[in-house]
Amino acid sequence: MTTPILEIRDLHVRVEDREILKGVNLVLPAGEVHAIMGRNGSGKSTLSYVLAGKEDYEVTEGEILLNGQNVLEMEPDERAVAGLFLAFQYPVEVPGVATMTFLKAAINAQRKARGESEISTPDFMRAVKEAGAQLAIDSDMLKRPLNVGFSGGEKKRAEILQMALLKPTLCVLDETDSGLDIDALQIVSKGVNALRSPERSMLVITHYQRLLNHIVPDVVHVFSDGRIVESGDKDLALQLEARGYADYEKDVA
Ligand SMILES: Nc1ncnc2c1ncn2[C@@H]1O[C@H](COP(=O)(O)OP(=O)(O)O)[C@@H](O)[C@H]1O
Ligand SMILES: [Mg+2]
Q: Could you give the domains of the chain?
């Protein structure tokens, strides 16, 4: 069997002395898109923060493997170089730096860490123009500081643009649909779908089903009280939408 892009084994995580993740197991093979659904507070974002290597999240048990490499031993920037990209629910603002400049610096930081030469300005311009057009991002937006004063939709589109330029092997999208109107949702979904490839995997985290009409997952996992309690095909998302999460919570109480 080929090595999965992502493998999470019995992951337990504490935040401020409270156990939030209670034994997460997940295998994400190359080329697949998996969705994680679950109600607010079930621990979905905690999982994405742990993947990102955010401080204050204490892993007490378990492991995370990215292309077979131990992620928990890597610094956040090393994870990015290893092919991990995370799009967060609340993207950070980068005041004083034009989005364009930020994007080029991000690409070059990764190229440098991989021992590659810097991207040439014409190559960079071409790549930004191509990816930006697909996402309806104009040059005006690229001159503004990243995320500063961006609308919800603009933030998400800027994030997908970063993803398109950095070409990660694992994309984690946490609540990418929140704050999007229907038009923006379609643009973002189209951008994400264009990045689906046999070498790339995606983890799409959401508590609504509607995003999954546009980004159709291979597998849907239900998250409840810090673990995956059920997995199925895309129809599971529709069933959840109809019946809610109450069935799972009973076991918790
Ligand atoms: N930094 C933190 N400090 C204290 N509690 C936290 C922190 N982050 C998350 N939690 C708690 O962890 C639980 C899971 O939160 P989260 O992972 O954000 O869930 P979801 O993304 O599924 O809504 C919640 O009860 C939340 O209050
Ligand atoms: Mg969340």
A: 6-252 (3.40.50.300)
